[in-house]
TrEMBL record:
Residues 1-67 form the DUF4371 domain. This is DUF4371 domain-containing protein. It comes from Coffea arabica. PANTHER family: GENERAL TRANSCRIPTION FACTOR 2-RELATED ZINC FINGER PROTEIN, ZINC FINGER, MYM DOMAIN CONTAINING 1. It holds the Pfam family DUF4371. The gene is LOC113699917. Transmembrane segments: none annotated.
Amino acid sequence: MAIVLRFVDKQGYIRERFFDSVHVHETNSLTLKKEICDVLSRHNLSMQNIRGQGYDGASNMRGEWNGLQALFVQECPYAYYIHCFAHRLQLTLVETSQEVIPMEQFFTNLSLLINLVSSSCKRVDQLRVARAARIAELIAIDELETGRGQNQMGTLKRPGTTRWGSHFSSICSLFTEYEDICSVLIDVINYGNTSTQRSEADRVYDFMTSFDFVLIMHMMRDILGFAQVLSQALQCKSQDILNALKLVSVTKDRLQSYRDNGWNELFTNVKTFCDA
């Protein structure tokens, strides 16, 4: 368990510092509270001076009656609990997308695609070779700029329910590696060691190159891109509630504008992508 303290120094500036790392045998709220109190006690810090606590949304942390935050509030009523805003935004995006069947199918297929490519060291190497060859080709015809830190080799990123911005990062990595992934899948379809591998690669290739998959890939990149700006802002060390509310309002306005006026540009981009 990592413990981070947020405090105001003698000059009146807000500081946030990693404080300690504690090994715990249990993750129930009573055990975690005892360990935190022991750490504070060893450093002569009074629990009564706590003015806030922030954890994720797990029931053992945020439980209204028996969660860790509730146990601290019972002894220190000013230790107000804040559920990480960026974490809440991530959970909201995931839950919302799961309620829309095409979106749920898209992320399920995306996970299958990543599992197929990433589960084999050979296919990972093939993807890197294909990526390097394509970068060299684009540089040769002056379609890519060169310079320090540019055109670095990346990997397919796996979306995670609780990892901030992971779905957006996963889709962005898919855009970057799209052509190379198709090349690797075609190679597996033609030369895979087993019929199961060839069949699975063929199924993944079919849905990956379908118009519906490409359409949702573009649309989710745009939508999650709007939310990503908000997510990064909510992770700032210094953030006041009024500015946060303004950022939420701006994000909602951008999403509404995209819904009202974004279809023609989206369709054009998808068509261009498919024709390339």
